[in-house]
Fold:
Amino acid sequence: MRVLLHICCAPCACYPIKVLKEKGYEITGLWYNPNIHPCTEFAKRMAAVKKLEEIEGIKVIYLDSYEPEKWLRAVAFREEKLTRCQICYAMRLETAASVAKKGKFDAFTSTLFYSKFQNRELMLPLAESASSKFSVPFLDIDFREGWKEGIEISKDYGLYRQQYCGCIYSEKERYCQKGKPKLEWLLGQITEESKRTLEFFEKDSQ
Structure:
């Protein structure tokens, strides 16, 4: 059975890949995440997926154009968390279903269903809708039971682990309090993040 696995980030893909391999499925990954901001974050996450691709020996399809405008236009004036997340989930799941249909996969699923920070109840009907729209079965597996195991695998692999979901709004929620930057703490984070980013790209270019 050929399964297309939409990958939101490398750490979230570790446990789903393990489960799908154990079930004997032939896995192909799909990188499509127009929500990620800024461009440097997009590049780091995609590079981590490429590293995981090599470690796990799977193929990944990369829709790697950085086009935040498309995502921002979709969520503008709909920034309330539940609404914007619904739009974001739908964009990625429909694209996954579309690619699965084009590639004649037997089913599709997403690493979004691994994260305990994502809204499974909101995502499920969107996945089923995408499945119906493109006539490709959605493989419904609740990967959340492997949350801790996935974290450990990602650490063992030395994968880049992000600090927020991905979009500009989640970044604000992570680094601000009541709309105001947590300046003292944030400046320290920026210094450390800049150092890690430099080390990451220097290592990746070698």
